Amino acid sequence: MAEFEDGKDQGALRTIGELGEALGIKTHVLRYWEDQFPQLKPLKRSGGRRYYRPEDVALVREIDRLVNRDGYTLRGARTALKDFGSAVEASVEAPPAPATLFEPTGRAESPTAETVSPEVIARLRAIRTRLAEALTA
Fold first, then answer.
1. Confidence (pTM)
2. pLDDT bracket for residue 88 (50, 70, 90)
3. Alpha-carbon span 118 to 96, nearest angstrom
4. Using one digit for the tens of pLDDT, what is the confidence trace for 89-102?
5. Are residues 6 and 32 in the same domain?
6. How many CB atoms neighbour CB 25 within 10 A?
7. Are 134 and 80 part of one and the same domain?
8. Which of 11, 25, 57, 71 lies at 20 to 30 Å from 42 by C-alpha?
9. Residues 51 and 102 in one domain
10. Which range marks the domain in which residue 133 is found?
């Protein structure tokens, strides 16, 4: 992670110039990402001056990693961030999966709560939540 070397506290608000310089991202790219990623909403003060909160900085770092290091397209990065956010929300807010979800079928390769990763369970819960919301809409 890039550290800010401006003498400010790590939790301080950053201008677009400070953020761009610290992460090596041009300011016009950061402004473009604001249009492309709805989650990225820095504070805007009079005159349209942008101030990035620590959570905005973390999101920009994640976008930068996905797009510039992992080779995602902007569309793919948007999807990855949406799924990531949904999985985190689901793992925190969704009730535990019913025990019947992993009923043994007699085959050795049947999934059990012990053999399924927490990430897969979180993603399944997110899907279940989305389906329930779609059915009630």
1. 0.58
2. very low
3. 12
4. 454 444 444 444 44
5. yes
6. 20
7. yes
8. 71
9. no
10. 75-137
Residues 37-41: contacts with CB within 8 Å, 24+ apart? Answer: 37/63, 37/77, 37/78, 37/81, 39/81, 39/85
Judge whether residue 103 has pLDDT over 90: no
Does 3 lie in the same domain as 58? yes
* CA–CA dist 66, 25 (Å, integer): 14
DSSP for 57-95, written as a single string: HHHHHHHHIIIIIS---HHHHHHHHHHHHHHHHHHHHSP
CA dist 103 and 125 (Å) reads 17
Ranges of H-type helices in 1-137: 16-23, 27-36, 54-64, 74-93, 118-136
Same domain, 43 and 97: no
Task: Say if residue 25 is in the same domain as residue 38.
Answer: yes
Choose the final residue of a domain: 52, 71, 90. Answer: 71
CA Rg, the chain, in Å? 20
Q: Report how far Cα 34 is from the mean position of its chain's Cα atoms.
A: 14
pLDDT at 87 over 60: no
Give pLDDT tens digits for 53-72. 999 999 999 999 999 999 99
Number of domains in the chain: 2
